[in-house]
Amino acid sequence: MPIRFRELPRPFVEAQTLEVSYSGIDAYQACPRRFFYGHVLHVQDPSRGANTTLGNKVHAALLALNRQWMEEGEPPRDDAVQAVWREVWPIDRATIEAALADPETRVRWEPGFVFPRQVVQGWQRGAGQLRRYFEWERLRWTGMHHRPVALEQPFQFELNGHVIVGRIDCVLQTGGGDVVIDYKTGKPKNGRKPEKSLQLAIYEEAWRLQSGANPAVAYYHLAADDDQPGQPLDPWRADKQARQTRYTVEMRDTLWAEIVGALDRITANDFAAAPKEGRSTCDACAYRLWCEESLA
Fold first, then answer.
1. Bridge-partner residues for 178, per DSSP?
2. Sign of CA dihedral 42, 263, 189, 234
3. pLDDT digit string (tens) for 67-120?
4. 97, part of any domain
5. Are 21 and 164 in contact (CB under 8 A)?
6. What is the CATH number of the domain that holds 128?
7. Is 202 within the bounds of a domain?
8. CB 68 within 8 A of CB 74
9. 100: CB partners within 8 A, 6+ apart
10. How high is the pLDDT of residue 13?
């Protein structure tokens, strides 16, 4: 029977312990019904566009390159960046040139991409973003005390009887203290401010508990707002692409009140459809085609 014609399941009791990551809390904040489909009914998210594929490959390359930096003591140079990128996404130079010249050239298909030239342009975009980022890190590198100290760092801690889990992309040790970094492959104009980020609040607390440090937190955006397909990339803009803050007690209290509030509503089985940004939230939802409450 369609959900709208019957009472929603009530899978939780108020005393129940949840194990939840930031992605679950974010889904709930976007729309409780989205959380219900993905994290209660465990309906597989069917969406995987070209941006998701590119983002996954860039993150894999960042992990490998930051590991090199951690082991060798200095940020990788362009030749190392290019070599790792070709390992992560193996397309040879001849294929790239052929695909740009002839749209009929055969290129190994990747999820979300529609035609060969789009695959090659995605490959070039990722390569350029990685080179630009590590060029900036080399310019500001000041020695062995400036390097990654944790990569894909798993964490688990308790909050009001619940368990918060996740992984931190990178913790960078600097002369000014540790910086907890989450890499983003989207443009800064579409991103969230660290000052209001529940994700970075969770990651900060996790690193505080593991290390005893009081870190800054940052979003590093590999893309820039003025990047254009097929055009050379401008140098890294730290004021736009590396958004960093250090939480005050008041900021931390505000963010954690939001997180606790979401957990309380989940255990109260509040899964009424309430898209945070109205139709735009529904338009971006993987379940929009068959959600009976969708505004899309």
1. 173
2. negative
3. 999 999 999 999 999 999 999 998 877 777 776 676 666 777 677 777 777 788
4. yes
5. yes
6. 3.90.320
7. yes
8. no
9. 117, 120
10. 59
Neighbours of 38 (CB within 10 A): 19
Taking the complete model, does pTM exceed 0.85, yes or no?
A: yes
Residues 6+ apart with CB under 8 A from 185: 51, 54, 55, 58, 59, 129, 221, 222, 223
Q: How confident is the model over 218-268, as pLDDT tens digits?
A: 999 999 998 887 788 899 999 899 999 999 999 999 999 999 999 999 988
CB atoms within 10 A of CB 35: 24
**What is the number of domains present in the chain?**
1
Find the domain containing 189 and state its range: 50-247
> Residue 87: inside a domain, yes or no?
yes
157 part of a folded domain: yes
CA distance 88 to 292: 40
